[in-house]
Each structure stands twice: as C-alpha cells, then as structure tokens.
Amino acid sequence: MVQFRNATLEDHSWRTGGGASILGSAIAALTIQAAIDFFPAPGTQRTLVSCDDGTLRKDNGLGGSWVTLASGLTVSGQVPFWTAGGVETVGRSRKAFHCDRINAVRVLAADAATMSALASPPADWTGTNQPGWLVVHEGYLWGGGNVNSPHTAYRSLQTNHEDFLTTPYSLAVYPGVGERLSAGLSYKGGLLLWKDPEGVFFVDTSDSTPANWRVYPVGVAGAAGPGCVVGIEDDVIWVSPDGSWHLISATQATGSVRASDLTYRKLGSWAVQQINFERAQYIQIAYYPLKQEVHMACSAIGQTQKNRRLVLDWNRRGDVGERWIWWDAARNEALFIRKKAGRLIPAMGDASGQIWELDQASRNRNGASYTFEWFMADTDFSAIEPAWRGRRLNGRFIQLEYDPRS
Q1: pTM (2 decimals)?
Q2: Cα separation, 334 vs 355, whole angstroms
C-alpha cells in the first residue's frame, strides 16, 4: 500500500483503526498542551495537564472534577513537559514535575491541591532561564536546556529531587554542537541527551566517581523538544527537527555506532510535505506497548494545531520492516499513555479541554464516523508468485469482506 489512513494492521488485517471515547468532562474551552498519567499513591490515579491559559490542573482520575494546581504561568514561548519523580527514600512523596523553558519548575507533592516552585533549583535557573526537560536517572533528577547555559545538564540530590544546591553537580555536554540540550532519557546504565537541531550523546554514568564519567556522541540528528524521544522495549526512537525518525540500540549507545534512520526508505520526503516541522518542538511521541506502535502527534503542513498523528507499526520489523499509518481524525494536542483496566492505552487532550481515550473497540469518534482509506500500489503480484514478474495477468476475482457490527 502507498497510503493507509485512520486504520490498523492488527491481527493480520486491514481495518478501521480503533475509535476514541470521551473521558469525563471538559475543563473549559482550553487547549490541553501536555498531559501525564500520574499515580500519587498506589491505586490513586490522576491526569495532570498544562493548558494554554497558563494553568496546570488535575482531574479525579476519571477526567472530571478538575482542580487548578497553578495559574499565571507565562504562555508565550513555553514548551510544556511533565515527568514523574519523588519517592527517593522511605516515606517521601511521589511527585510530578512540570517544566516549559520559561516558567520556574513546578512540583506536585503526592495528591496536593496546589503546585509549588522547585524548592532548591540550580543557581542558573532564574527568571525566564528555565529548563526544557527533566528526567530521573539512577535515582537523581536531571534537567537542562536553560537559555543562559544551554549545553549544561544539572543533577539533583539522590535523596531529594528538589535539591540541586546542597551538592551541586553539572555537566557540560559538547558546547560546540547544536543550540541547546532539548531532551533526555535514562537508558542502559547511562543518560541519553539530545540537542536541537543536531547531536545525540550518551553519558556513561556507570562509574561511582562522577569525575570519571564520559560523554560519547552517538548520533547526528537531534531532537527539537522533550516530547520527541521515547523508549521502546530494548531500544529508543526519536524524531529529529527535519521529520526523520531514528533508532538507537544498546550497542549503538555504548559502542558509538551510527544511529539508524527509519523513515527515508519507505516515506522518502512524504513527511516534510505533510507535516509542519516548524513546530517540531511541540511534537509528542508515545509508545503503545500492547500493539508495539509508536504514535506521533503533530501539525499538518501550514497549520499550528496538532491535528495529525503518524503511527509507526513495529510488529513486523523483522520481515517487512517498519509500517506507517496516517491519522487525521483527531485533534491530539496532548498525546500521552494512560492506564485503563490494567493496561496502557494511548490517550489525548484536545483543543476543547477534553480528555479522550484512544484505540477503543467502537470504531468511531464518540459516535461520529471517520474515513478509513487504503490505496494500493500497482503490482504484478510477483511477491506472491515470482514467475508472474513482468507478465500481464488476468485476475479471476477480488474479495472484500465487511463486518457490519463495527
């Protein structure tokens, strides 16, 4: 096929992709820019969101009873990002951290009703010089990307993720490459760091003495924002500012071998013709482990709203390679993974303050239909029967099956 839209390849079939259902009630007529599924305590679930009116909010676990955790944040120039941390030692609270490059880092402790500023940030994190990414690695909270020192990664105490001052530690990462550190991910005993627009680095933190840590460049293509990277099973995938998708593995990270480009072989220049990569810093990708799919929320060419989703189906990479599916049936402004009935499913926040659960059994959008489309390439079917290669064929019949129940 040369086009496959609003669809799925699950169970060795071509069919309309899973539907979307509303969860709870809308906050207000607001755009949800970023979201995280957060568990302040075992069995207690909350959705935390960043809205375009400068507020941070949480629900009751069912998409309703929204509470404002923080307000008055500067919206212009922000790239909102959430990460979970805390529980550093026995008795300490689970915490959620929010950063956006512009506003001071906000912290939610347990299931509190308000968020406070980070207690002891690095001395460099002042005013609008704030980190754009945060990640927990080997028990520490790391962050960076602040404009006044864009190539520096900062580390908290291992016993307190809010304390960057008692034992200050920072690491300069190839200052001559790229504009700023834009994303981070803990991986295989080291810290992967990306820069915008170029540069991927592996910080080997296996030695007990930080002075012995080394930084290895492991890729050229960078990442524009913190939501552009995700771990998948044993590997890592990220989207670069030019729209290409890349894969890095343990051998690549530790052996400084080249990173792999996943898109050009099958997509060519299609992605840059369809997606607005001037807004690459706002891209969010999420891994759906049940179906081994990587979902990317993005904007169509010439548009600013995130009204497209490109899905990488990773199930048959061994025999047919990567397979790509294009979605235009949803306004997925905030894409994230949510726990539902014991399993992880994709979810989104839209431009109307509403949370949606995706990949639902009912193949509609809250009762509304959407188009399922496929377009096949010309073929002589020689992949099925090599003797047919280059011959004119007389087809006997073609069979289409329709299931009226869905």
Answers
A1: 0.92
A2: 9
